[in-house]
Amino acid sequence: MKTTTLFIALLVAGFTASAQQLSLDVAKSSIEWTGKKIGGQHNGDIKFISGHLNSEGRAYTSGEFIVDMTSIVVEDIEDPETNAKLEGHLKSDDFFGVATYPTAKLVIDKGVLVKDNTYEFTGKLTIKKNTEPVTIKATMDTKDGHRVFTGQLVVDRSKYDVRYGSKSFFDNLGDNMIYDDFTLDFKVILNE
């Protein structure tokens, strides 16, 4: 009986020791967005507020990342007036309504190693008032005591009630149509 109790205690201690919470290095992590329309595209950045991933061995059991929607900036337009106009439009109710919805949230349900250093994460993304399931593939490298995940998330904005210029909501847009899918290229740096 004592041997069984000792074995169980060591087993539990081993699992506990391998579980850890990795915190996001907000200053070094980044998100670059790209939106496309007929005949062109725009891109820029958006900032993280906070985040963490819980790991257990080589798997990830949960996590959460909060994004500051008020931090949206446009990078590809040099003219200050035109740049400010597009940035203001993206922050308006036509797009992300940041006065009402200042943050977006990604909740990770799990992350599994699929090959080499590539992980597949599943979870839920909330933008504005809508929450939708997402699957994200990311490559993980270790550098200077950090875990660095890079990848791309493709978001269908029509699922999050971002309607402006969307063929999902409006007919006869012609050359004014903006594609529903936009991309988020991310670099997530986690402190061990």
Polypeptide structure, described:
The protein has about 190 residues and is an alpha+beta fold. It has a single domain, classed as Beta Barrel (Lipocalin), CATH 2.40.128.110. Helices cover about 15% and strands about 55% of the residues. The chain has 2 helices and 9 strands; from the N terminus they run αββββαβββββ. Strands 1, 2, 3, 4, 5, 6, 7, 8 and 9 form a 9-stranded antiparallel beta sheet that branches. The two termini are about 40 Å apart. Pfam families: YceI (PF04264). Keywords: Signal. InterPro entries: Lipid/polyisoprenoid-bd_YceI, TTHA0802/YceI-like_sf.
Compact description:
The chain is of the alpha+beta class and 192 residues long.
Share of helix, binned: 10-25%
- Helical stretch tally: 2
Q: How many whole angstroms does the radius of gyration measure? A: 20 Å
Q: What is the fold-level CATH name, i.e. the topology?
A: Lipocalin
Helix and strand run: HEEEEHEEEEE
Poorly predicted regions are: 13-17
Strand content: over 45%
InterPro entries: Lipid/polyisoprenoid-bd_YceI, TTHA0802/YceI-like_sf
Signal peptide: 1-19
Domain Lipid/polyisoprenoid-binding YceI-like: 21-191
Keywords: Signal
How are the secondary structure elements laid out?
Blueprint: H1 2-18, E1 19-24, E2 30-37, E3 40-56, E4 59-74, H2 80-91, E5 103-115, E6 118-127, E7 130-143, E8 146-156, E9 178-191
Antiparallel strand pairs: 1-3, 1-9, 2-3, 2-9, 3-4, 4-5, 5-6, 6-7, 7-8, 8-9
Pfam family, one: YceI
Signal peptide: 1-19
Keywords: Signal
